[in-house]
């Protein structure tokens, strides 16, 4: 059973003149442990797709199954639990600028009701996982892009997610920093068994770490398979 299954998923946005179809009849199965790349040009619908997976956007049609459960029909409690099992990181990191690295990681833990001291311990552990122990007291403005993304990854791991959704997570980074962030994501996938979904417009990101890939163009998935199947041509 896939951990994420999208079935006949469509998403239309209301725009001035009517509606715009950003996703059309998308079907996709992602299995536990996959590093799944979703690649396509700007405007293809990648962000919309990944935001439908955790219901940041509600699909207009079709279903999203997480761990076999239809997200659209869960009780409020179950829905919240499913959503907490999916963390997200972004191109622009989305850190709280007035908080230190450590406090940024503590934030979701405190929201979840963890005691301050306990949250602090866990944040320290997570900053060690991402190789940033020495920057715990630094503010985002004092960190490089790669370091900021490491903080965001630590924050994403705080809630013990099953899935990490990455929306152009390396697009603001230079090539060597991109390499090191991809290596960290691979390590997290292997060490913790976290399924990773990577949205990107860069072929090299997919080739570097993905096990599977879907190509999206004009709101539709046009090709899907293992990276070998999709990128190896006779
Ligand atoms: P990608 O991530 O591949 O660049 P997006 O999913 O961000 O693509 O966007 C796909 C299309 O949907 C784009 O044409 C974009 O302008 C449009 N779109 C995205 N979000 C909205 C929105 N909230 N309202 C209207 N149109 C949107
Ligand atoms: P990304 O870099 O992930 O592709 P975008 O810059 O396309 O993101 O979009 C940033 C935000 O603006 C998103 O929340 C998206 O829903 C919204 N957005 C994108 N395109 C449009 C649009 N044409 N109309 C309204 N909102 C949009």
UniProtKB/TrEMBL annotation:
Q: Which Gene Ontology biological process is one annotated for this entry?
A: amino acid transport
**Which keywords belong to this entry?**
Amino-acid transport, ATP-binding, Cell membrane, Hydrolase, Membrane, Nucleotide-binding, Translocase, Transport
Q: What class of enzyme is it?
A: hydrolase
**Gene Ontology molecular functions:** ATP binding; ATP hydrolysis activity
User: EC number(s)?
Assistant: 3.6.3.28
Q: Which top-rank group of organisms is this from?
A: Bacteria
Give the UniProt entry's GO cellular component terms.
plasma membrane
Q: Which residues belong to any copy of the ABC transporter domain?
A: 4-234
> What family does this belong to?
Belongs to the ABC transporter superfamily.
Put simply, this protein is called Phosphonate-transporting ATPase
Where the shown chain sits in the full protein?
7 to 240 of 337
């Amino acid at each position: 059973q896939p951990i994420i299954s999208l079935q006949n998923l469509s998403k239309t946005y209301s725009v001035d003149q009517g509606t715009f179809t950003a996703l059309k009849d998308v079907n996709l199965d992602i299995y536990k442990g996959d590093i799944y790349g979703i690649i396509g040009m700007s405007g293809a619908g990648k962000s919309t797709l990944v935001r439908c997976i955790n219901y940041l956007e509600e699909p207009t049609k079709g279903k999203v199954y997480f761990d076999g459960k239809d997200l659209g029909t869960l009780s409020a409690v179950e829905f919240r639990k499913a959503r907490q099992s999916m963390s997200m990181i972004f191109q622009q990191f989305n850190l709280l600028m007035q908080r230190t690295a450590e406090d940024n990681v503590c934030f979701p833990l405190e929201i979840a009701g963890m005691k301050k001291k306990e949250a602090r311990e866990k944040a320290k552990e997570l900053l060690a996982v991402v190789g940033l122990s020495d920057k715990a007291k630094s503010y985002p403005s004092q960190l490089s892009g790669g370091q900021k993304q490491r903080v965001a990854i630590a924050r994403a791991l705080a809630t013990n997610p099953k899935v990490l959704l990455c929306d152009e997570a390396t697009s603001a980074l230079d090539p060597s920093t991109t390499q090191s962030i991809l290596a960290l994501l691979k390590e997290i996938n292997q060490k913790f068994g976290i399924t990773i979904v990577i949205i990107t417009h860069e072929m090299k990101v997919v080739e570097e770490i993905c096990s599977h890939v879907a190509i999206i163009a004009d709101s539709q998935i046009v090709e899907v398979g293992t990276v070998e199947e999709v990128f190896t041509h006779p």
